[in-house]
# Entry
Amino acid sequence: MAETPSIFSGVALVGSGSATPTQSLSNDQLGSRVDTNDTWIRTRTGIEARRLIGADETLTSLCCKAGANAIAMSGWEPESIDLILLATSTPDDLFGSAPEIQAKLGAKNAVAFDLTAACSGFLFSLVTAAQFLKNGSFKRALVIGADQLSSWVDWSDRRTCVLFGDGAGALTLETTNTSKEGILGFQLKTDGSRGNCLNLKQKERRESLLDGISHQVGGYEPIQMNGQEVYKFAVREVPAILETLLKRTNTDPKHLDWMLLHQANQRILDAVADRFDIPHSKVLSNLANYGNTSAATIPLMLDEAVKDGRIKPGHLIATSGFGAGLSWGAALVRWQGPD
Ligand code: COA
# Structure
């Protein structure tokens, strides 16, 4: 029997891509500059190295590489893309870098804009893009998560500079019939009342323009973080939101193929695995090589696991992002891959 046509479509996750800077900075190298060492960083965070955008690269160039990679895997023509969402807190252009990426990719029919939600940005963008697809407005979307936090850490502050790195990842989505549904449920949360434990704030700097009239001078303070508060937030809220998501979608954690969490600290990943009584090996991690790349971590990890064959078509994945805002969210997704 023919399926009843519906204006509401399913969404399939069809392609992934990623790009990381060529410059790598190891814990030992960092230890020669700030008062830290490999043992401390490795045991407290799981991080061994991070990548930093060098003189011959930009965040936009990484986004284009990651995006082109995902488009190629999908077998799409760039002109067939309707929407490009760039999740970032560190665009090369404060007015938004997505339009430049749209032009460079040749996606001339796509509307392109940036979305900022710090380390939750990719997850929030994925869900946002899916809404345009599900309501029938668009058919194909490219979601990119990318950040260059190396520009905004204080490289003399050992409490923060050891944690972050730069990178970009991308995912393509398209409408499909509901039997191939790729976004099975989601939960998104914000609590601005707790936002002061992780900030990248504008500098308080005013200049006088005329008598009685002054203006703010652009520029930002380096990242400020209360690590212990953020840690407590993550180990409390990530399992809680995943639990709600799994309950609402009637999913037994044992039926998950993978958990794909924001890559901030290996201890957070392990704590979430323990909470659900699943082996640590089921929680994907590439934190050791890249550190926390903010909005890039989820698609960067996804692409690595798709390319090395760990994530296979049909796999069920619980994903969760969390970070500044404070913001956090989770989605239950099924990877389809290209036809
Ligand atoms: N190298 C060596 N020593 C360091 C250090 C470093 N890079 N950073 C901090 N220390 C020291 C501190 O000064 C402190 O010394 P003291 O006891 O003499 O004062 C000691 O190590 C313990 O510091 P503390 O802050 O309690 O460490 P921690 O176990 O909480 O680990 C973080 C710190 C940042 C790794 C941890 O809190 C964390 O991962 N928080 C979450 C961060 C996060 O995920 N942020 C991004 C969210 S998107």
